[in-house]
Amino acid sequence: MTTLLHIDASIRAVKNDNPDHDSISKNIAKRFIESVTQQQSIDEYIYRDVGVNPPPFITQDWIGAVFTPDDKKTAKQQQLLALSDTLIAEIAAADIIVISSPMYNYGMPAQLKAWFDQVVRINKTFDFDLARGDFPLQPLLGGKTLVVITSSGEFGFEQGGIREHMSHLVPHLRTLSKYLGVSTIHEIASEYQEFADIRHQQSLSNAYSQATELALQLTNMAI
């Protein structure tokens, strides 16, 4: 039994009238999903395009609802948390989570951050206990695999790269992933987009190949 949750964060569509405007991250994710489904049967596929249909930003009232005991929540508070409850249920059900995202201003798009703010939630995806000392937060979910697919205009954002210190996308995703219950992370990156030269074409080709190879790898592990 495999449930796959797919989150796309680019504001661009997969296909546009001008191919130069096609979302790179979405297309690599599409290749990965297609490769997985060719190799194995997915029992449930859940898709969210938060780039095009972003969840609302959390508010003071939303936070108030979160910290109100369940048996004392008003109907309005329950309604405020309804989407969050749905999104968290999707994560809880997933065995594999795919997050594709472009790098915007060296970090994640606001739309993807809004999704994380809806799902990283006390007593749902983590609990809090001061008896743990300086590390009171503990994830409540576990055992999931995360595939992170990113695209960037520059290059060298990997660990040890010349722009590692400027990358606030993948490091942020790694930090937050534990609150999604992630135990294993795979990363695929396409770089050099703004240079539009042979390096970009090679990086993009490598990313597509990695997506296909990773799909086969995960399928073999599942058998």
From TrEMBL:
Pfam families referenced in this protein's UniProt entry, alphabetically: Flavodoxin_2 (PF02525)
InterPro entries for this protein: Flavodoxin_fold, Flavoprotein-like_sf, FMN-dep_NADH:Q_OxRdtase_AzoR1, NADH:quinone_OxRdtase_FMN_depd
Keyword Oxidoreductase: yes
Domain Flavodoxin-like fold: residue ranges: 4-210
Chain positions recorded as FMN binding sites: S10, S23, I24, S25
Alphabetical keyword list: Flavoprotein, FMN, NAD, Oxidoreductase
Cofactor note: Binds 1 FMN per subunit.
Cofactor: FMN
Stretches assigned to coiled coil: none
Gene3D superfamilies (UniProt xref): 3.40.50.360
Superkingdom of source: Bacteria
SUPFAM superfamilies (alphabetical): Flavoproteins (SSF52218)
Enzyme Commission code: 1.6.5.-, 1.7.1.17
Enzyme class of the recorded protein, top EC level: oxidoreductase
Reaction equations catalysed: N,N-dimethyl-1,4-phenylenediamine + anthranilate + 2 NAD(+) = 2-(4-dimethylaminophenyl)diazenylbenzoate + 2 NADH + 2 H(+); 2 a quinone + NADH + H(+) = 2 a 1,4-benzosemiquinone + NAD(+)
Described purpose of this protein according to its UniProt entry: Quinone reductase that provides resistance to thiol-specific stress caused by electrophilic quinones. Also exhibits azoreductase activity. Catalyzes the reductive cleavage of the azo bond in aromatic azo compounds to the corresponding amines.
PANTHER family: FMN-DEPENDENT NADH-AZOREDUCTASE 1 (PTHR43741), FMN-DEPENDENT NADH:QUINONE OXIDOREDUCTASE (PTHR43741:SF4)
Assembly description: Homodimer.
Family of the protein in this entry: Belongs to the azoreductase type 1 family.
Stored HAMAP family: Azoreductase_type1
Protein name: FMN dependent NADH:quinone oxidoreductase
Origin organism lineage: Bacteria, Pseudomonadati, Pseudomonadota, Gammaproteobacteria, Alteromonadales
Gene that specifies this protein: azoR
